[in-house]
C-alpha cells in the first residue's frame, strides 16, 4: 500500500509539472495608438498632434519631418504575458514621389507630449506639446532638433520596411519589435512609442503622410500583437484538484 501511495502522489506531481510547462493558448489583439504626432523641421515650433495624418521623410527642399506613435499594450494584454509577435500597419495618404522608400521604427527613449494642433503644417505649440525643437514645448528640448539618435530615440532600428505611395504597409514582426512591446508591457513607465523616419534622410522627395489616429476613415495605425497569457493560479489549482480527484476515484474503485 505504501508503494502504491508513493506511485500515486508521484504521478500527480508529474502531471501537475507537465501542465505547468504547457504554454497557454496564444491570443492576438489589435491596438490603435494612444498618441501620435509629426515633427516638422520647416515649422520647428509648431505642433501637429491633432491632425488627421502625420508625416515622415524629406521634402524636395531638404526639410525633414519625423513622426512619433505610441501604443499601450497593457490596455488589452494581461501583465506577465509573453509577447510572441508584433506587426505595425500604416496607411499612406500622400507621398513625395513614386519610388518605394525605406522607413524605420526606432524606440523612443524619452517622453513627449502629443498636443492637439491641426493643419498640414500645424500651429504654434502650447506648453507641453511636441515640436521639432522640443518633446515638451516651453519645458524641455530634444538633444538635437528633431530628436537625437541614441539620446532621444534608440540608434538602432527595431524594424524597417519599404513603403510605396498609397495604401496599407506593414512592418513585419522582428525580435526587436517583440522585445520593445515586452519591455513596455513589463515596465509601462518606459513606453514612449516609436520614432518613424526614413532609412536615408538625405534622399529628397521621400516624405510620406500616414493616416493618424484622428483619421476619420478608420485608416489609423494598427499594432497587432500575439501573446501567450500566463495561466492564472486558479486554473492550475483546478487542474491539480481534478487530477487528484480522478486518481482518488480510480484508487477507490480498485479497492
From TrEMBL:
Transmembrane segments: none annotated. Pfam families: PEP-CTERM. Residues 229-251 form the Ice-binding protein C-terminal domain. Residues 1-26 form the signal peptide. Keywords: Signal. NCBIfam families: DNRLRE_dom (NF033679), PEP_CTERM (TIGR02595). This is Ice-binding protein C-terminal domain-containing protein. It comes from Pedosphaera parvula (strain Ellin514). The lineage of its organism: Bacteria, Pseudomonadati, Verrucomicrobiota, Pedosphaerae, Pedosphaerales.
Amino acid at each position: 500500500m505504501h508503494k502504491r501511495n508513493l506511485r500515486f502522489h508521484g504521478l500527480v506531481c508529474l502531471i501537475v509539472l507537465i501542465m505547468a510547462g504547457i504554454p497557454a493558448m496564444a491570443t492576438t489583439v489589435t491596438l490603435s495608438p494612444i498618441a501620435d504626432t509629426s515633427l516638422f523641421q520647416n515649422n520647428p515650433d509648431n505642433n501637429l498632434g491633432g491632425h488627421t495624418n502625420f508625416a515622415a521623410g524629406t521634402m524636395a527642399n531638404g526639410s525633414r519631418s519625423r513622426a512619433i506613435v505610441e501604443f499601450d499594450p497593457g490596455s488589452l494584454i494581461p501583465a506577465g504575458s509573453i509577447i510572441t509577435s508584433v506587426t505595425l500597419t500604416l496607411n499612406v495618404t500622400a507621398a513625395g514621389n513614386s519610388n518605394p522608400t525605406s522607413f524605420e521604427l526606432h524606440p523612443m527613449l524619452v517622453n513627449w507630449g502629443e498636443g492637439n494642433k491641426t493643419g498640414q503644417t500645424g500651429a504654434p505649440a502650447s506648453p507641453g506639446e511636441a515640436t521639432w525643437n522640443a518633446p515638451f514645448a516651453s519645458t524641455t528640448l530634444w538633444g538635437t532638433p528633431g530628436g537625437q539618435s541614441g539620446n532621444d530615440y534608440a540608434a538602432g532600428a527595431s524594424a524597417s520596411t519599404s513603403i510605396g505611395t498609397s495604401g496599407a504597409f506593414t512592418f513585419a514582426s522582428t525580435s526587436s519589435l517583440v522585445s520593445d512591446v515586452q519591455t513596455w508591457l513589463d515596465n509601462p513607465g518606459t513606453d514612449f512609442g516609436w520614432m518613424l523616419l526614413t532609412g536615408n534622410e538625405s534622399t529628397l522627395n521621400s516624405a510620406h503622410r500616414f493616416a493618424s489616429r484622428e483619421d476619420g476613415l478608420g485608416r489609423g495605425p494598427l499594432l497587432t500583437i500575439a501573446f501567450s497569457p500566463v495561466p492564472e493560479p486558479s486554473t492550475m489549482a483546478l487542474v491539480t484538484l481534478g487530477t487528484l480527484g480522478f486518481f482518488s476515484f480510480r484508487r477507490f474503485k480498485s479497492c
